[in-house]
Amino acid sequence: MVSCLMVAALLPASCAPAAPPEEEAAPVEEEEATTAEEEAVTEEEVTLPAEEEVAPPPAPTVGELEVHFIDVGQGDSILIDLAETEILIDGGDKSPGVVEYLGGFVDGALEVMVATHPHADHIGGLIGVLDAFEVDEIWLNGDTSTSQTYSQFMSAVNSEGAQVYEARRGDTIEVGELVFNVLHPVSLDDTVNNNSIVLSLSYGDIDFLLMGDAEEEAETSMLTAGIVPDVEVLKVGHHGSRTASSRQFLQVAKPKLAIYMAGKGNIYGHPHQETITALTEVGALIQGTDIYGTIVITTTGEEPFSVQPPYSAQPKAPAKFTVTNLSISPDDVVPGRTVTILATVTNSGSTSGSYTAIPRINGSEVETKSVVLNAGESQVVSFTVVKASTGNYTVELGGLAGTFTVTKVVTPEPEQELFLEIVSVTDPIGQGYTATLRAKTNPGAYCTITVYYKSGPSSASGLYSKTADNEGDVSWSWKVGTRTTLGSWRIVVTASLDGETISQTTYFTVY
Questions:
Q1: 91-95, 214-218, 413-417, 439-443: range with highest mean pLDDT
Q2: What string of DSSP letters covers 148-195?
């Protein structure tokens, strides 16, 4: 059954409005003629006691509810199972496992399927589910994609014959004894993650908030509307990315248990340390599928609920990263010169994890580098920057800060380049060989050549040093040998300019 409620209906119990005052009776027109007895009657004022505001009762329970956060690697897939009712929210990427997992729980049809948004790591696995199971209802957010995965998914949806709905704030998804409130989206914009379907579910006294890949923009929208519930279990948005789970949002939701869904050693560095810190600050216990595998919550609607594997199964401490030894070299440069930023990242936790280092210069991000570290490991990360404008620059990285200065305006010198080419080798079957070599470097560079035959320098005569002309061109011609010195020749050309030297090697064969 599907119904659409006003946004006010989504307010948490503590925010429920008081019952409206009784409607006043409409005044009755006075009759033209009244008796003296009627005129003597006065209406007695009656003061009614104010009604107490009563919170709505908790959602009814009819047995044990199981919520399975299925380990699908870097993706989301959540199965909600209550007696003969099963709801699947997302299906991970196109990988085996979800269909087989559902086979142990779904008898007959899958009552409801929800695709929170059209990214492949959420809808890819749903294609196989639609092939394997009959699905009664499918809920989408209405967003589209040009990906092949999305095209295949929508083809499977259209072939299923299920009722298809687009979720919007204020809708409810009612299936069996369960009622899901749609908290987001209100409408679609151009940020796919922030168009994710966000659902809340209450079962007795246990409240769940399932965020899909919703990020801070969606969180702010829900906070502004006053519809973020206080929950026991939060499925963390966007795999634990720093782009979600803002402190303002978490201070309202106040989860007791936060579950993030991410692949072990994923290239994105999920979960980000900023998210772990923010969750810890609100007192949430944290579990992730990258450490625990599939996580199952079982509840009858009363505290406490059970979690498998239990929280105590987690190693002593999750990955915890610190940044030390920030260095900047040199700290005073001319425009166009390279500045190197170095720092040491250390994992002081007892599990492996990924950390994303993001240096900021005068508040702006430079680039990001992710490092995967086992417990107790350290790694030096390096960044290079070039600034063309003079001034003072502040570098921030991992809570540390340093500075460098650009002090002199000069035209940066181009990097030296050396291009070598054998122009000609004359008379290849005669008594002597004359080779012409041309090099290209910076104008004014001082160039030298050494000609090698086999392992040692040749005794061939010729001009062995020159200064490049205004175009950076240098050329040499020299006799390289006779019929008795057939073989491979190695030529090394070096060029020096302003104290810097570069070299390049080329070859030719006398035959």
A1: 214-218
A2: HHHHHHHHHHHHH--EEEE--TTEEEEETTEEEEEEE-SS--S-TGGG
**Residues 196-209: tens digit of each pLDDT:** 999 999 999 999 99
**Of 149, 147, 35, the residue nearest 94 (C-alpha):** 149
Count of Cβ atoms closer than 10 Å to residue 156 Cβ: 18
- d(Cα 104, Cα 102) in Å, to the nearest integer? 5
Task: Name the phi and psi angles at 298, rounded to 5.
Answer: -120, 130
- Which residue shows structure tokens 């087989």? 100
What percentage of residues in the chain have a pLDDT greater than 90? 52
Given this model, what pLDDT does residue 33 score?
38
Two structure tokens written together for 505: 């090697």
Residue pointed to by tokens 């030390």: 324
**Can you tell me the distance from the alpha carbon of 67 to that of 81, in angstroms, rounded to the nearest whole number?**
6
Q: Which of 84-88, 182-186, 270-274 has the lowest mean pLDDT?
A: 270-274
Domains and their CATH numbers in the chain: 65-313 (3.60.15.10), 321-406 (2.60.40.10), 419-510 (2.60.40.2550)
Cα–Cα distance between 90 and 282 in angstroms, integer? 27
Asked if 264 contacts 292 with a C-beta cutoff of 8 angstroms, the reply is no
CB 180 within 8 A of CB 172: yes
Number of C-beta neighbours around residue 289 at 10 A: 24
- DSSP secondary structure letter of residue 366: -
Cβ atoms of residues 63 and 81 within 8 Å: no
Q: Which amino acid is at 101?
A: Y
What's the DSSP call for residue 372? E
Tokens (6 digits) for 415: 């990097």
Match 């302003």 to its residue by tokens: 498
Q: Is 414:442 a contact under the CB 8 Å cutoff?
A: yes
